[in-house]
Amino acid sequence: MRLPARQQFLAAEQNPRAGIPKKHLLLFVLTAACIAGLFFCENVSAQPYPLTKPQKVTPQAEKVIAQLGLGSWIWTTNFEDKQTCRFWKTFSIPENDHVRQALLRITADNSYHLYLDGREIGEGSNWKSLTEYDLTFLLTPGNHVMAIEAFNDGREAGVLMGMKVTFASGDQTEVLSDDSWRIVPNNSHRWLHQTRPDPNWPAATIVGVVGQSPWWLTPVNIMTPPTLQPSLMHFWQTTWFLSSVLTVCVVALGLSLWLAAKLALRTRAQQLLDLERARIARDIHDDLGAALTQLVLQSEVAQTEYPESSPIRAQFGQFCGSARAVSHALDEVVWAVNSKRDTLRDFSSYLCKYAQTFLSNTTIRCRLDIQPDMPASVFDLSVRRGLLLAVKEALNNAAKHSEANEILLRINKEGNHVIVVVEDQGKGFDPELLTGERNGLQNMMQRLQDLGGTCQIASAAGAGCRVEFRMPLAHPAARAGFSWRRIFGAQNGETPAEEWQNLKGS
Amino acid sequence: MTSLRTETKPPTFSAASPLKIALVEDKRDVRESWAKLINSFSDFTCMCKCASAEDALRMIPPLQPDVILMDIFLPRMSGIECTARLKNEMPRTPIVMLTASDDDELVFVALQAGADGYLLKRTKPADLRSALLDVLTGGAPMSSEIARRVVESFRQKPRERDDSISLTAREEETLLLLSKGYSNKEIADRLGLSIETVRSHLKHIYEKMHVRSRAGAVARYISGKPIENG
User: Does B216 have pLDDT greater than 60?
Assistant: First the structure.
């Protein structure tokens, strides 16, 4: 019969014998037994064990015990199950003597941790055997603190130890477990490092003599761990050093994560900008440029349909000229916007073409001296645009004022700089007397300096003029977005947004 | 480009036997305008108007025009690939590229593919006329930038089998002067040559450049990636 849970429950109420399974009943009985047991235990453990009274020791045992060099079993005033008891003692090694041997034997019921000057020496949990520690190398002259943290699992408890120190001079001294030890309260935190006892630390209680029940008459065996060596604390092992290294690591990790994230964003932004610029350039070229070309062609065709003498033909001629000029200007915009033109090679090619076209309208010959195999190094928009404007100004000045019949344009790459020279053999001028007419060049100099470049003008009356522009090329890594300036806040013309501002401002 | 143009004796074409021009241009309006402009010269005639490279390859070879005007940007097959293919079939017929913007990179590739010169689409009709005549009588004018690239390309180690093709000293001298901004006339004066000789040097340079790159070039342009605009 299968009933829903609720109905099953009701059925159990009505018929308890059928409803409560045997398993539940058993569980209930066990739980009750446990609770009762715990309660009983609690009552028992709250009662201190009565201290065993000292008994007479046989002479044979006394002999053995004397050879062991141990003190008495010590504990605090009461025994409790699951009890921790801490012992503390200082002793001193004389300055003028040398420790030849120091052996410490110890055991505890039920277990112990042994400390010397705050350093853990060893531990043990078998009260039937003794452990012998060799502390010869640890006992330097001066005061020492010995501490024992013992644990009682149940019933009687005690710690038994004895240390024999032999000096080079033959003197001997002993540290034994006796009532000179102090009991340290369990709430004390720095007790291992404390060099003086607190006044409220009580003395240890002797709870038994060696060879007397409930403990052994003679130890089952004596274990000897290897000789202990002084532990040299190197500076890199110290807590402050490790924690500062850790802090530095965490800070460095955080910083690099932050930089990586920022870099990724920058690089992405730069890529998007480059793509967008290329797209805009393509759109302008394809749509506007093609339409303008078409306009020029159609007006040329229209022009041919009128006789030579017709005034309409002349008007169409003017119209064609204007449309060509617009088309030319548009090419310049496309060149500036197009991210594919952000290279030194393109810049140099463009500058040559500009100079030749510009000077073809004058009587001045244009001579070029371009470094062969101009590398396609990255040449960022803001810089190339600034340099182009400056060179235009220089060419314009030379064409207007120099009265030369030849202008030389030289483009070179020197290390991480591009050097553009505009030179003429014309009448020259005194650079000190730069007048308003040449002020444009001064503005350009300022502009180049803002972009990290320099401009030098060398001229003298009658000795021509030489203008040298020197601009830094972007570091190749900057292209990939890696530039500290780009990361830690950019300067003018460095961020994509500002590049746009510059572009829009033109 | 126009600044480098030199005045030459126009070859004799007349209304009775005009210069036959084939035109490849995908935009209808532009194509019609060009045809009208060409036809407005009495000694020129536009004998064939193609709207695509595929049309051009089918229609032009049987007609044997004197000059082919080719737009660089054509849908599907580019003007450069079309040039390479046409040059294979009719190596003697000069091909002049039409470009909307002055892009040396593209022009240089086109010249390697076999083009004999290039014109900006906004060129004045008079300049168009003289440029076409230039192409027929000798080498088309070469800009300083292109001259520089040609010198560089000849100095590079050839990858293809035509490694015997190299420039003569005079040709290289001509190119170097061109790259320094000298005009054909100035070069002729400086080297003590006639302007016709300078232009024949240029013609040979164009041919050598074409021959030099032909082995691998045609395959490259035909199978190659689409040409990007801008």
Answer: no
Question: Taking the domains of chain B in order of start, what are their residue ranges?
Answer: 20-137, 144-223
Q: Which of B41, B144, B152, B156 to mutate to test the interface with A (most CBs of A within 10 A)?
A: B144
- Asked if the C-beta of A286 comes within 8 angstroms of chain B's C-beta atoms, the answer is yes
For residue A12, the tally of other CB atoms under 10 A from its CB is 14
pLDDT at B140: 77
Q: What is the pLDDT of residues B139-151, one digit of tens each?
A: 777 888 888 888 8
Which one of A17-21, A40-44, A338-342, A501-505 scores highest in mean pLDDT?
A338-342
pTM of the full structure:
0.56
- What's the burial of A86, exposed, middle or buried (CB within 10 Å: 0-12/13-18/19+)? buried
Which residue of chain B comes nearest to A305, CA vs CA?
Answer: B40
Summarize the confidence of residues B19-47 as an average pLDDT: 89
**Residues 6+ away with beta carbon under 8 Å from A283:** none
Yes or no: say if B213 and B112 are a contact pair by the CB < 8 Å rule. Answer: yes
The pLDDT value recorded for residue A89 is 93
Residue A370 forms contact with B (CB below 8 Å): yes
Residue A86 pLDDT: 93
Distance, in Å, from the CA atom of B224 to the CA atom of A387, rounded to the nearest integer, reads: 36
User: Per-residue pLDDT averaged across B31-56, rounded?
Assistant: 89
Task: Give the CA distances from residue A286 to residues A292, A293, B228, in Å, rounded to whole numbers and listed in that order.
Answer: 10, 10, 12
Edge-to-edge strand list for the sheet holding B44-50: B44-50, B19-24, B67-71, B95-99, B117-120
Helix (H) or strand (E) holding A222: strand A222-223
* Structure tokens belonging to residue A133: 């520690």
Give domain B20-137's CATH superfamily: Response regulator (3.40.50.2300)
Fold of B144-223: Arc Repressor Mutant, subunit A (1.10.10)
Between the alpha carbon of residue A295 and those of residues B25, B120, B125, the distances in Å are 16, 14, 14
Residue A108: strand pairing partners: A159
